[in-house]
């Protein structure tokens, strides 16, 4: 298992007097690809903001299979210590320790609410009937979270996508190829997809 090295950088997290009283902001830490940030069930009072890179959140099922429940991208904050958190690419994180009192400030409440919404959205995606719908919803969501761009960066692998959507890697690859053959997307490389027909992709996701 790889380790994380601390690197001091300027943080985008709030450093107002009020924020400093409510939470202790730590330096940015570096996490190499596949580095475990925290393990399932590990107790910690920190939440994390991604300065660069990307993180997958997953749990191991009783039969040893992996179920990914969320992907977090640059600028997003997460706190889900009942699961594993793992860097997908070279990743820098800023951690913020919650006050010992346990009281949640506005930022922590916002993080908790976003996590609840994303969990509900994930259930809706997994419940879709066809693999085409699942991949379309997934790509539209990534595009929106990356600023509405038509060129999507994919820090996750096809296996990651399959474990998130409940599909095999073969189905993921075949479905993306089908979208390419339909002229809806263009595969720039293994980790980048260009949306050629955004309206059609959104129609498939509805």
Question: Care to describe what's here?
Answer:
With 206 residues, the protein is of the alpha+beta class. It is built from six helices and twelve strands. A five-stranded antiparallel sheet has the order 1-2-9-4-7. A four-stranded antiparallel sheet has the order 3-8-5-6. α3 (131-145) packs across α6 (198-205) and α4 packs across α5. The longest helix is centred in the middle third of the chain and has 21 residues, at 106-126. It is globular, with a radius of gyration of 18 Å. It starts with a strand and ends with a helix. Residues 1-22 have low confidence and may be disordered.
SSE arrangement:
Layout: E1 5-6, H1 17-22, E2 24-31, E3 36-38, E4 46-52, E5 55-60, E6 66-72, E7 77-78, E8 84-87, E9 91-97, H2 106-126, H3 131-145, E10 151-153, H4 158-165, H5 169-181, E11 185-189, E12 192-195, H6 198-205
Antiparallel strand pairs: 1-2, 2-9, 3-8, 4-7, 4-9, 5-6, 5-8, 10-12, 11-12
Helix pairs in contact: 3-6, 4-5
């Amino acid at each position: 298992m790889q380790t994380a090295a601390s690197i001091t950088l300027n943080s985008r997290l709030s450093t107002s007097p009020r924020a400093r009283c409510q939470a202790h902001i730590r330096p940015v830490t570096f996490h190499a690809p596949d580095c475990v940030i925290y393990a399932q069930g590990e107790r910690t009072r920190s939440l994390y903001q991604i300065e660069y890179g990307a993180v997958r959140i997953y749990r191991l099922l009783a039969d040893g299979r992996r179920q990914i429940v969320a992907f977090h991208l640059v600028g997003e904050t997460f706190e889900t210590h009942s699961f594993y958190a793992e860097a997908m690419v070279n990743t820098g994180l800023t951690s913020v320790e919650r006050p010992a009192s346990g009281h949640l400030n506005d930022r922590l409440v916002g993080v908790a609410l976003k996590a609840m919404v994303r969990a509900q959205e994930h259930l809706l995606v997994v419940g879709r009937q066809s693999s085409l719908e699942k991949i379309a919803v997934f790509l539209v969501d990534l595009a929106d979270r990356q600023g509405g761009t038509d060129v999507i960066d994919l820090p996750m692998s096809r296996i990651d996508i399959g474990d998130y959507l409940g599909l095999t890697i073969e189905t993921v690859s075949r479905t993306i190829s089908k979208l390419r053959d339909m002229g809806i997307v263009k595969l720039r490389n293994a980790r980048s997809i260009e949306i050629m027909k955004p309206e059609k992709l959104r129609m498939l996701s509805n």
